[in-house]
Amino acid sequence: MTRLAEILEPLVQLTLVRFREFYREPESIFWVLIFPPLLAAGLGLAFRDVPPAALKVAAATPALADALRGEELLEVRMLPAADAETALRNGKVVLVAERRPDGGVLYRYDATNADAREARMMADRAVQRAGGQVDPIATSDQLVVEPGSRYIDFLVPGLVGMTLMTSAVWGVGYTIVDARRRHLLKRLVAAPMPRSTFLMSFLVYRLAMMVIEAGAILAFGVIAFGVPLRGSFAALCLSCMMTTLACTALGLLIAARARTTEAVTGLTNFIVMPMWIMSGVFFSAQRFPEWLQPAIKLLPLSASIDALRANMLEGAGAAQILPELAILAAWVVTCFLVALRIFRWR
User: Is 141 among the domain residues?
Assistant: First the structure.
């Protein structure tokens, strides 16, 4: 047997073990291959391109109600002042309009509610026009909805990154700790193979699974919703590959010292769940404070999603997403080297 064969044989066999562990667990197949497209379908239908719903507002007088009905996107209810306040507190209306003693109009609404702020602008526009105001410049609207600007287009790259990260971190971390708990790692240590080969088998396995996991979500998004793939296919594959490597290395690091499945579960949730929220999977990370943005940009999931969205929606190539790829590469090297150094085999 040649030297190369001696090196590759353990790696191939250990990688095959990873695949056998996967397809022998029906639950894993569901969460990895079926659940992400179902989630994309549900959110895509919930935020599909439909005409905007009318905002519900209340008016205290018939004249004020008639004025507000001049705005098509307002659903106006005439209610006494006390009932209108109750409806506002209960969320049945987003805005209450009342006449002030001086003849002006008072708007009551929650300023933290985006719908309420929009209703306030439309209501005031309707009231001013009813009072005789004439727009100094005539304007018109042209509503444009095209692939790349919809919520589903924003969502699919986030789901790809989230799926690659979650399956890598959980699949690697939990598997290693479970093997350690059952004292299987001690037997592997006694086998005539380099220890790094055992850890490398997880990287090879995750790269192979990446094709299935990312491919399932992307194919569903393109076929079912027409999600665009504007960038180069090579850059897309590179983004997915670096995401997989970074998250696999993170999973190895998480599992390096943990002795129980409870410990690795808690540690994984502690690390993964904040990234689900902060990295912009379901909504833009720009919603977080400005002082937090540099730290968010350095998270592996943030770099992955930014690279995927730039490639898919903006047509960015490898050169344009190089900063994000560099962040992912730093996570790969750092996590893998630290995991190798502190890894507990017993």
Answer: no
pLDDT of residue 237: 93
119 bridge partner residues: none
Over 128-180, what HEC string results?
Answer: HHHCCCCCCCCCCCCCCCCCCCCHHHHHHHHHHHHHHHHHHHHHHHHHHHHHH
Domain count, the chain: 2
Query: Is residue 339 scored above 70 in pLDDT?
Result: yes
Q: The pTM is what?
A: 0.71
Q: Are 90 and 207 in a shared domain? A: no
How far is the C-alpha of 170 from the C-alpha of 346, rounded, in Å? 20
In this structure, of 184-188, 202-206, 269-273, 323-327, the range with the lowest mean pLDDT score is 184-188
Could you read off the pLDDT of 77-113 as tens digits, one per residue? Answer: 888 888 888 888 888 899 999 888 888 888 989 888 8
> Of 73, 95, 130, which one is at a domain's C-terminal end?
130
Calculate helix-pair angle for 300-314, 233-255, nearest 10 degrees. 170
* Domain end position, chosen among 65, 98, 130: 130
Q: Please report whether residue 15 resides in a domain.
A: yes
- For the chain, the average pLDDT equals 82
Q: Do residues 285 and 220 share a domain? A: yes
Res 21 pLDDT > 60: yes
Query: What are the residues whose beta carbons fall under 8 Å from the beta carbon of 58, sequence distance 6 or more?
Result: 76, 77, 78, 79, 83, 84, 87, 88, 93, 95, 96, 97
Is 307 found in the same domain as 177? Answer: yes
In a domain, 242, yes or no: yes
The whole-angstrom separation of Cα 208 and Cα 93 is 52
What is the model's pLDDT at position 333? Answer: 93
Report the C-alpha gap between 107 and 59 in whole angstroms.
Answer: 10
Residues 283 and 178 in one domain: yes
Please give the pLDDT value at position 146. 56
Say whether 54 sits in a helix, a strand or coil: coil
On whether residue 136 sits in a domain, the answer given is no
